[in-house]
Structures are given as structure tokens and as C-alpha cells.
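Q: Sequence in, structure out?
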Amino acid sequence: MHPNDPSLKSFVTVAPDSHFPIQNLPFGVFSADAGQAPRVGVAIGDQILDLAVIEEAGLLDAGSGAVGVFARPSLNPFIALGHDAWRRVRARVSELLRHDGPILRDDPALRARALVPMAGARLHLPVEVGDYTDFYSSKEHATNVGSMFRDPKNALLPNWLHLPVGYNGRASSVVVSGTRVRRPNGQTKAPADEKPGFGPSRKLDIELETAFIVGQGNDLGEPIPVGEAERHIFGMVLMNDWSARDIQQWEYVPLGPFNAKSFATSISPWVVTLDALEPFRVPGPPQEPEPMPYLRQIGKASVDLHLEVALRPDGRTDATMVCRTNFRHLYWSMAQQLAHHTVSGCNTRVGDLMGSGTISGPEPDSLGSLLELTWNGRNPLALAGGGERSFLEDGDEVTITGWCQGDGYRVGFGEVAGRVMPALS
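A: Exactly. Output:
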């Protein structure tokens, strides 16, 4: 049976609302205790299947003579094996976890070593990120920001409808979900101020994003055609590209954001493969004018991926749902982003991270940043249990989650969460 078959069941108990049914099987890196070296696993229900143990038992072959790729602290060695290996390993894991598959199900000793409760495991950054790029691919988000800071009648800059706007970021401060994020210090200048000042950002914000991970790079000078781009993408994660809006407003002209974005970017620990997302593919938004030939994509370019953001103040048990949106609103697709990124001849490498940019939708509650939700602080959000927010305060915890809804099951990403720590004095 195909690993995406909706009728598949696992011998591992999986709740109906779990993000990790047998139809998903996302890859990540974990350690079961403080003394264990990080290794590669697959999420199934509330368990992690230790692929290093399964490989050692002779039940999993990554192919191409590759040995020990799962006993590594990142997914990079496995990802580097290529698209056929990803698909073959996922199919074999699906076979081993099926409810009618006796090999693992009926071996209690192996099962005890290979299945690790997720609640007791530590989840690590899944890939070694060599380079990080952030795009600006939501038309709604770009329109809102352009209306807010420039001319509402000409909110989009002239290039926006012709190419996926992006900038080269930095990989050093990409962190895994759960890592605390320190409020940055920097220069800021309000319009009425005569000169800039220095201190903690007062407009710390979230950016609801996804990101894709490059699974097969390209040589310098050899662009990736848009029709082949998805074979170069291993999978997707959720991402929060934390942003200091007041620092950004002062520094971004003429070269774009710098310190306002460089202090932290959080990603989810589980990488959902494009194969797992295939049943949820949908057309992207109409593109007018028609893109140039190197960006023209046929078929279902997007994914019906529901996304939510919750904010919980320090010391509170109740969280406020501040945003509900969908990845399908994104104007420029992942394939178009990668094709444009490499059309100049720029080479990419295994593990490179490509952010979508803030994902906003057309409804008032579908805006993927506090900048938009509060219109730069003019209309604060009311919080459940009292209080309000224009931007993030110290101690606030932000959690992003996302899933694709199947018939009786979900293919989800888990979550990416982070708590704001005070700035250094």
C-alpha cells in the first residue's frame, strides 16, 4: 500500500487529532536521555521511532552503500542521499509501523529499544543550516505593510508581482522550538525624534512563516528549473522569524533588515516531507501578470495547510489565539522561490533553509504578524483573561502550529514555540 493511503493504520496508538499518523512520518533529530548522542527519528503518534536502532537491527537500508546515516546529530547525511532514498526510507518505515506488519509489532525487545516516548525525549535542530534565505511572498502581507508605511494606493513596489522578493539572512541564530529568545537591543528612531537612541526593542513581533529545506543542491552557475525544483526540496518546517519592528524601521533603508531580524529565527523540530503533503496539494493564487518563463509553474503549486498562532503571557495558563490562516494564500510558491534564488547561478546546499515570509490571509484574523493585527500598535489585541497586546512583552510565549486535514487524520508539523526573555542591560 502507498504510504499516503488514508486507510493505513499503525500498531502504535495514534489519536485522531495527532499530527503524526502513519500517513505523515516526519523526520527529526532527538536524544532519549542526557547521555545519549542525538540521532535521527520519525514521529508516530506520541512516540519516536529510533531509525538508528532499526538500521542496526538490519531492518532499514538507506541505500547507496550508506551506513550509519541515522546515528548522526543532523538529517544532513541522510538528506544528501537524494530524493529516491527519502522516498524508499519513508515507505519502509511505513511498512514496519503498519498494524498488520509483524516484524516490529511482534518483537517486544526490539520495540522497547526502538520506540521512545516523545514526552521524555529532547528534540534538536533537525538540520545543520548552512545558509538561510527569507522571502516576502504573501501578497496580503506585502500590501498591508506597504499601505502602513508607504502609499496605500501603491502598496506593492513595482517588482513585487514579477519576482519572489527575498534577502540573504544568517544561519547562526536559527534555533529549534523551545529555545528562549532574548529581546534585542539596537538603534531606534521615532519619526518625531531628532536623532536615534539605543536600547531594547519596544516593538518585538512575530512572523508566522513556513520554511523548506534544500535536499539536493545545485552547482555554482547551474540554475534549478522551476519544473525540477521540488525534487530539490526535502520537506517543510514551521518557522517564527522574530522581528524587532522599531529597529527594522530605522535600519532597513537602503539595504533591508539587519539587526532587526538576526537575533533569532525559530523552527519546528519535525520536517514533513513533500511526499507526505502530496494529498493536500492545491492551486496557488492566480498570478497576474503572468510570470516570466523561468517562473511559470504548472499543476498544484501550493498546499492546503492550516496555520495558527497562540500567545500566552507569563504566569498565565490561558492562551489567546491571535491568528488563523492558510499556506495556500502564499502568492509565490516554493518551487518559484527556489528557481528564482538560483536563476543567477547561485548554488544551494543540503540543509539550506528558505523561509516563506510572513503568511497573511484576506481576513482580519488571518494576519501573520502583530504589526498587521494591531496596525503597528494602533489597535491593540484583547487577551483572553484580560489585558491587551500591541507587541510582545517579556515573558510572552508564542506558539505556532499547523496541519493538513485528511479524512479522519491529520498530517501536521507539531509546533514551534518560544518565550521572550528580557534584553541584556
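The chain has a mean pLDDT of 96.
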